[in-house]
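User: I'll paste a sequence; please echo it back and then give the predicted structure.

Assistant: Echoing your sequence first, then the prediction.
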Amino acid sequence: MIVVNNKIIISGTAGFIGFNLAKKLMGMGFEVVGVDSLNDAYDVRLKNLRISELSSNKNYEFHELDLSNPASVSNLQTLNTQAQTFFHMAARAGVRQSFLEPYNYVLDNTVASTNVANFCKITGVSSLILASTSSIYGDSGENLMRENKDERIQPPSVYASTKLAGEILAKTILDGTDTKVMVPRFFTVYGPYGRPDMSILRFIHWIVNNQEVQVFGDGEQRRSFTYIDDVVEALIKLMDYDTSDTFNIGSDKTVSLNQVIKIIQDKTNSQPIIAFKERAIKDPDVVKPDLTHIKETLEWEPSTLIENGIEKTVEWYLENLDLLKSLTYIKK
């Protein structure tokens, strides 16, 4: 990797992927300008834990900014970071919650991405790496979802719609400029420091603490669970890619929720108490990525087996049990 400028902007460093990406890049010698609004989309105590850990590194500089607010973007411009890469990892995630708070999702996903793209245009950032989601594909069935082919004209959720709109607007704003726009679409990322509203960390929490494991549906819906270290590796490879493009970043091996519970059961030597609940609205049976493009262009593919990834996540949970057992895992 040839480093022209040592500074990198990462939005969403209090978030799961942004936090892990920042840690990795600082370990490689980069200086990270971290931005986050610290919103309450899920338990802010976990966000504060991530920021606290990052702030112990002298190469980390944190700014609490809401990028959906033009005034905050103006503040970002005054920092004069001269960074050539902007990882826009910040977003408001969650399919179920997006139907309850659509306006917040439009602000945090669509408006914020628009403002970030305009910031890159004005300041001459060389590369915008804009996080997106597999949710825009909807239910794939047995088909593999391919970039620039299988996107839904009408995505299946408010969350997916706001993320796809953010993609389109960023590409349109930066079309014809010198800023490359690369869009990684993530497939069900999990691992240490993961989001408490996602299934794997919720299941670990409930099973370790002998609480009822709530499964929305029959548990046979399958996911392309992707370990965080694999995702970070792919994002770093994008820094050396010299063309605007879109990439699926996920596992091409799907696992059911029931299988995940069984793996956690084995790793914790616990007997889960399972309660099957009503299926969540617009919850797909399966979403599977076609990884042909990313394998051919970036020579990347996931390498972490689900059993190993869950084992590492269980170990992290137990190491931080006092804090993690007190978090809110499902937003009311």
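The chain is about 40% helix and 15% strand. The first strand starts at residue 7 and ends at 11.
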